[in-house]
Amino acid sequence: MLQLFKSAACKHARNSKYQFWTHENHAELIYSNKFIAQKLKYIHYNPVRAGIVKNVEDYIYSSAVNYSGESGVLDIELLSIEWKTYS
User: Fold this and answer.
1) Measured between alpha carbons, how far is 3 from 14 in angstroms, rounded to an integer?
2) Residue 42 — φ and ψ, nearest 5°?
3) CA angle 81, 23, 37 (to 5 degrees)
4) CB atoms near residue 62 (< 10 Å)
5) I need a labelling partner for 5 at 20 to 30 A (CA). Which of 21, 22, 24, 63 fits?
6) Could you please report the per-residue DSSP string of 18-80?
7) Is the pLDDT of residue 4 over 90?
8) pLDDT tens-digit profile of 23-39?
9) Residue 65, number of CB atoms within 10 A of its CB
10) What is the tens place of the pLDDT at every residue in 40-81?
11) Domain coordinates of the chain in residue numbers?
12) How many other CB atoms are there within 10 angstroms of residue 79's CB atom?
């Protein structure tokens, strides 16, 4: 992983050693429960899209398992939004 962060840093003049976050990120106003649910789903599916796990609940550091009704490794405060368990 460290080599990936080092490689990413070489592509940007602002970094001299490592880069963890992408520069494409930008702040967005969260204006509705639907929008919150969309962003949470996006975050939960990142490890699946990256090929790290097959199911969102399988990523150990994700809150997706908590939202599916189980207990995860991390203590989280669930958001008060209507939620559907991942399939």
Assistant:
1) 18
2) -60, -45
3) 10
4) 23
5) 63
6) ---S-TT-------SHHHHHHHHHHHHHHHHHTTS-SSGGG-TT-SHHHHTTS--SS-----S
7) no
8) 666 667 777 878 888 88
9) 22
10) 899 999 999 999 999 999 998 899 988 888 888 888 888 776
11) 31-87
12) 12
The amino acid at residue 23 is H
Burial (0-12, 13-18, 19+ Cβ within 10 Å), 63: buried
Residue in the structure block whose two tokens are 């990523």: 59
Residue with tokens 């962003």, as numbered in its chain: 39
> Structure tokens of 46?
């990142």
DSSP 8-class letter at 16: S
Closest CA to 20 of 34, 38, 32, 8: 8
Residue 56: which residues within 8 A CB-CB, separation 6 or more? 44, 45, 47, 48, 62, 64, 86
